[in-house]
Amino acid sequence: MRSKKQSRLAALAAAGVLGCAALAGAQPQATPDKQSDAEVLRDLVHFIQIDQFSAAESYAKELIKRLQAKDGGELALLSLVEEGAEIDRFLDSMAEGVRVSALRDEAETLLAMYEGGRLKRARHSDEIEANIKLLEGPARGRIFARERLIFAGEYAMPKLLNVMLGNSSSALQSEVRGVIIRMGRQAIGPLTAALPELDPGRQEIVVNLLGQIEYRTWLPFVLELRQATQSSQVAEACDRALARLTGGAPMEGDPAFWFYELAERYYAEKNEVTSFPNEAMQLVWDFDPGVGLIPTAVATEVFHEMVAMRLCEQSLRHRTSDNDALGLWLASNFSRELDSPAGYVNPLYGPDRPEAMYYAVAFGQTQAQWVLARALDTRDTPLARRAIAAIEQTAGADAMRMPLVLGTGDEASDRRPLVEALSYPNRRVQYEASLALARSQPQVMFGGSERVVPLLAGAIRDASKRYGVVLTLDSERSRVLRSFLEGRGFTVYAGSSLDEIAEPLASVPGVDVVLADYSQDRMVSEMERIRADNRLSSTPVFMVAGGDDFTRLSTLYAGDQTVSVRRSGITENMMGVSLDELLLTASGGVISEDEAREYAAGALDAMRDLAVANNPVFNVSDAAPSLMAALADLHGGQRLKVAEVLSRINQQRVQQALVDAALGATGIERLELLRHAAESAKRFGGMIEARQVASLRGVVQSATGAEGTAAAALMGSLAPAIDDVMPLVVPSGDRRASER
Description:
The protein is α/β, with parallel strands linked by helices. The protein contains 39 helices and nine strands. Among the domains are: about 5-120, no CATH class; about 465-590, Rossmann fold (3-Layer(aba) Sandwich); about 650-740, no CATH class. The protein is about 60% helix and about 5% strand.
């Protein structure tokens, strides 16, 4: 019984591919840098086939380097593979290489370049035209032409539609009709773009074609045409197509509803509305009767948002009342802005158009709250933050807290999105929602109001702290991953499962990232627990997996921007870069020191204003313990802001903390803290201890200038007993002498 390797070598030898030296395991005498491209490819395949992967790696790297240096390297690789009659062997070898860790990256790169070459050639205008001509030729040519045109997908539709609607032979039109129907969902965008601009005869042809494509994405366009057409033939074609799609069930809902429903599918980036999921560009279609179909290439990152906006506009043209399309348009526009690659010029949303916030504030707080509710429901942290910023600019205190009816029909419900945001599992969102509510100075109590002041207090002390979770069954991996996160400034909670660390996590204000290293099945089950936990439902999850688990998990979570999957062999540096990318995309990154200072300053300003106004809803005194701790920890301007807020809280322990802080400070800090302590005493009376009176008297006696006056003012504001201040005028020794 021969081994797999022996069988393979025998087959290669029989085919005349290998010489005696190759069969003996010897390497070709020439090094890859001395060989032609064709020879490098040939020997690369050879070494993979005889399991000489170390040698194969150098040949793969050399080939990739050469191809990437060429303009059209993908087409060059395609020609090399086809000219050498190596297609099957090349594909088999690359599939084998992907399974070998030493070759995986190179094999994946070469496979991607080969597929890229195939696509570029199939989509070339001359190639499409030649394949259409082959549809009129012999059977074998027609078979190949059909497959190539279907492979070209949407890119072939302008020429195919011209043939379909032109004066071509009925035989060719029949062939083209079959190709378009087999193309399926990729034909729908071009066909529906053309539909309203055609004459009734051609509309009937297109509707009949759409009726043969079993995807519902054409439904609103045909329903719209059905309501608008004056042609009985077109109307009948629309009725047939719709009945076929619905199985004869009567249509419910108007075009406005169905355009909105389709916009939701695009916004959710469903598979059926994504033609080229692994490509950098997608096509958006328009139609000019004098030109035909006009494709516009749009970056995949913003494609779905742009189409969703277009569909919402279509929906709103049919109906503006009782229509959530406006809110979805605003959400899509924010998402377009958030997802646009740096420096990208969007051909469908030029730089001359206003920023998304312009529209969000123009349409008022109800629509902004609709966007916030959607962001909270979908755990879209960046969108939630934009919505809160819009609400703060447009909503008064009552509007922020009062319930809104969001949704329509059976989906309608009373929501208070800004109040809900106080419990959202992201500290940025919590802080920004609490700041918005505090700045609005509400005068009426509402459910959830008790969370605002503690969140503001947390922003003062804890905003810059980072919290991470490590989950793995391997104790050594746990140590390594924990060390990695701690090295990046995280406080880490580690365990074999989420349940194991549930108790200590309960006191954490928010988790910034979960780092998990499991097998696929365990990873999926643990992920379900993570997302079911309200505190972690939107937390970024960084998965580390090896081998086939990596491939399967990457596919499973490919559409989730809050999840990143990386190979277990990744270097610490690469892991750090990937972690930063995940955190930035999913939650805006960890809160930086500068951001923390901004949150703290905003929270202090808000609490000062609440205290000054003696707000009946938000009781700043609830934050006294946190503020007193901050007074002890902070320095400079922030410390003085904390002291100003504390000076407005009527509590004995607060006044005593202010006096202790003043007595322990020096320089300008002591001067200002003495003044804030005096303000407290003037407002609420003296509440300090005897030891503090004695220490203060010592400061008054020894200090000079502004500090001495401030200390004396504090002493006077405390309404001291005459015996406590008499030593300032008559030293105690002199008093004893006179008394004798």
